[in-house]
Amino acid sequence: MSDDDALDDLVRHAITFPGPSIPMAGLRTALATVEAQLKHARDQITLRLRARHERDADTLHPDDQELDLYELEVTVKQILPRVFRGGFVLTLWSTFEVVSMRMAKYAAIQKGLEIAKSQWKQKSGENFLHVLDRVYSIKLGIPAFPNVAEREQLDQLRELRIVMMHYNGSVEGLPESMRAGDATGYALLGLDHYTDLHEEFVIPNAEFLARHFASVEKYLSSLSDRVYATCHAA
């Protein structure tokens, strides 16, 4: 490869090719921001309640104070993490879908193929990973999931995304493979486990976010290498 060819390849890889580097770099920053903002929100709501209790100490009924503290605990431990971390889970999965589809479309163009919209539709009993496997492995001739463990990690993220979006974290929405039984078991999955009068539910913790961000980044990077090598073989 000449110097000019090498430069063209570098430009193509960095600019033209729709790889995962830029979206994942943005998400890496967002991941750190999520934890920083969650801590800030927790600190602020706690400080405001303490200030109000000090101000109203002479008139505040003990039952009202106890209720305030209970609501604070629920907000700090459950509601805020569900909003901040649950939102990141949805965004991480969406990024995974979009980047993998963009690279597939790029590969199809380079190969002179066309991926019809119908080929992205999920058949009965399928999920997005089945579709991705079919489009890449069969249509494009690029192995979608050569590593079974990577696919299992992605599927776990997919399942939790569904649970957070459609079940508000309820354990009832989890597949049997992710039902860990108690708080200790769920902690191994990176999930905080809670129960109240109405339901049993889980919320992703910081470990879950970091672990699955890393798995998505690693998978997309590997897939990107396979796509680029297939489209632009030296």
What is the typical, i.e. mean, pLDDT?
A: 92
Assembly status: single chain
- Supply Rg: 23 Å
Low-confidence stretches: none
- What is the distance, rounded to the nearest whole angstrom, between the alpha carbons of the first and last residues? 8 Å
**Number of individual domains:** 1
Total strands: the figure is: 2
Helix content: 55-70%
Let me know the largest β-sheet. Answer: 2 strands, antiparallel
Shape: elongated
Q: With helices defined by DSSP (H or I, 4 residues minimum), what is the helix count?
A: 7
**How do the strands of the widest beta sheet line up side by side?**
1-2
Strand content: under 5%
Structural class by sheet pairing and helices = mainly alpha
Element pattern in H and E: HHHHHHEEH
